[in-house]
Structure formats: structure tokens, C-alpha cells
């Protein structure tokens, strides 16, 4: 993850990232069709190119506030895929201890979160930004 210029991956690398995202979601769809993932499953199939391009431009310390189709971005950011699948299966060893399902996810290692609530990504992004504000500030000029 991350780049310092226009793109850190060659075109072939971006394509492979897109394929990886698509294959992972196809595997999730198969699990859902088997009844192993409960509820509705909102996939990001067809959005891989945009997601791969955005993720490729992230720098260390950047975060992503995602909507209800977070899987491609999480895959692209390097989220542990085993923990991601376990989360969707409701397993205790999942990314959010099995409580988030497929829409309400948080990966603190990559500063990425998603919500099924429309418009929630804006407030999550603000929270990420506020969390980056240093807690110890230098004194103001003229203050004791």
C-alpha cells in the first residue's frame, strides 16, 4: 500500500490488484450463496479499478472511511483476508470479533472503517482526522 508519486504500481500491478479484489469478492459471494454469511451482501464488483487507483495513492498514515461496499478497498490496503472472512462468518477471531458482519468493519492497522449507514463515512473521516491532532500542543506565545 501507499505511494509517493502518481502511482507506485505498474499497470500490471494495478490489474493484479483488481483481480485479487474481484476473486476475493467472488469467494465471498459463494459463501453467501451457501448461507454461511448472514444478511444481505453488498459487493463492490465492477468498482475495482477505482478502488485500486485510490488505494495505490495512499501514503503511510492515510486512512479510508468506507461505505457499505468496503471489501475491495480492505483487500487493496492489505487487511488480513483470513480475519476478514472470519468476521463475515461471525467468528470471534474475525476483524471485529465477529460483530461487524460485512458492512461494519474496522481495521485499525490500516486506519480503515466502513459502515452500512448512508453518509456515515463523512463522520468517520472527521474522526480519523481528529485522531491525528497531537494531544500535547506547544504553549501559546505569551502564555505561562
What does this protein structure show overall?
It is a single chain. With about 140 residues, the chain is mainly alpha-helical. It has one domain (about 10-130). Helices cover about 40% and strands about 5% of the residues. The chain has five helices and three strands. It has helices at about 10-35, 50-55, 70-75, 80-90, 120-130; strands at about 65, 105, 110-115. The chain has a three-stranded mixed sheet with strand order 1-3-2, with helices on one face. β2 and β3 form a beta hairpin. α1 (about 10-35) crosses α3. The longest helix has 23 residues, at about 10-35. The radius of gyration is 17 Å and the shape is globular.
Please outline what is shown here:
The protein is built from 5 helices and 3 strands. It is mainly alpha-helical.
Helix-strand layout with pairing:
Blueprint: H1 11-33, H2 48-56, E1 64-66, H3 71-77, H4 81-88, E2 106-107, E3 112-114, H5 120-131
Parallel strand pairs: 1-3
Antiparallel strand pairs: 2-3
Helix pairs in contact: 1-2, 1-3, 2-3
| Series of secondary-structure elements, N-terminal to C-terminal | HHEHHEEH
How large is the radius of gyration? 17 Å
Strand adjacency order, main sheet:
1-3-2
**CA(first)-CA(last) distance:** 44 Å
Please tag this protein with its features:
144 residues, mainly alpha, 3-stranded mixed beta sheet, 5 helices, globular
Amino acid at each position: 500500500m501507499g505511494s509517493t508519486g502518481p502511482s507506485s504500481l505498474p499497470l500490471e500491478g494495478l490489474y493484479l490488484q483488481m483481480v485479487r479484489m474481484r476473486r476475493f469478492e467472488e469467494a465471498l459471494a459463494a459463501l453467501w450463496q451457501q448461507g454461511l454469511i448472514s444478511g444481505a451482501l453488498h459487493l463492490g464488483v465492477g468498482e475495482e479499478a477505482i478502488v485500486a487507483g485510490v488505494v495505490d495513492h495512499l501514503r503511510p498514515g492515510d486512512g479510508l472511511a468506507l461505505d457499505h461496499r468496503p471489501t475491495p478497498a480492505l483487500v487493496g490496503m492489505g487487511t488480513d483476508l483470513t480475519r476478514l472472512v472470519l468476521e463475515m462468518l461471525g467468528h470471534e477471531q474475525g476483524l471485529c470479533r465477529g460483530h461487524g458482519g460485512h458492512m461494519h468493519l474496522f481495521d485499525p492497522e490500516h486506519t480503515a472503517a466502513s459502515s452500512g449507514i448512508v453518509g456515515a463515512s463523512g463522520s468517520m473521516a472527521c474522526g480519523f482526522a481528529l485522531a491525528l491532532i497531537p494531544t500535547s500542543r506547544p504553549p501559546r506565545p505569551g502564555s505561562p
